[in-house]
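This part of the workshop introduces the protein records we will be handling. The structure tokens are whole numbers drawn from a learned vocabulary of backbone shapes. The record below serves as our worked example for the rest of this section.

===
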Amino acid sequence: MDRVSLFHTDLGPPSAPTLLLVHGWGGDGREWSPHAEELAGRFRIVVPDLRGHGRSPVPGEGNTPVEMADDLAALLTFSTTGPVVAVGHSMGGQVVNLLAVRHPTLVRSVVALDPAHGAHGAEVDGIPARLAAYRERGAREAAEFVAGAFAPDAPPGLRTAHVRTMLGTPDHVIAQAYAGMYTDPGAVGIRPHSQEYLRRRTRPALTVWTSQEAATWERDTLHVPGSRVEYWPDSGHYLHEEHVDRAIRLVTEWAETTVVADRPTT
């Protein structure tokens, strides 16, 4: 499939280690604005809009995490960033893990925030009905889901901003991306498939969950040397925006640690 030329911003010193900040389903790169401004003092920051989202082109087909990961690989290669610390939220967490598995030389390490993998139980049982609703009602259905994804004390305006961004995402992109996460051949969102593909990841990863059960599952069954799993209680799904300063500290500490660990010894 032809690669999509992604709209993106590139901030910070060009020679500094690079952070790639990837948004989730029905979002765009604007959700990383406060993080990018702060982090650009010590890192190069690349913030894309994924295919079908934001200001990037909208293909008629192929709006799936696998294609999104390959688009990012093309962007990083063109931008000559060197290996990046790839940070992704939700679907973006699945995308950056796919990037690390499919293009390991481009990734130094991964940060996945409440990623779209590891689905099980009742969540899996509801996938067919949700996909049918997204195919029928597109962004309107997805916006109703997103509206309920925030903690009660989330910053004012955050819910409205995400509902608005979701409503601006093309309906076919909503359905294709969801199917690409969970039901397409090779999709990795359901737990057994997640385990299979995450075990192919050779780069260290920091995963942050808002579900204690999910954190325990990933910590117990998928831990790789150099990797870490955290649990943030009392956070909604958009944890990096509900707790901006904490997310910045987390990413900074992780990036600085993995950059040092990845440097060649002399």
Summary: The longest helix spans residues 244-262. The longest strand covers residues 107-113. Residues 39 and 220 are 31 Å apart (CA to CA). The beta strands are 8-11, 18-22, 44-48, 84-89, 107-113, 205-209, 228-231.
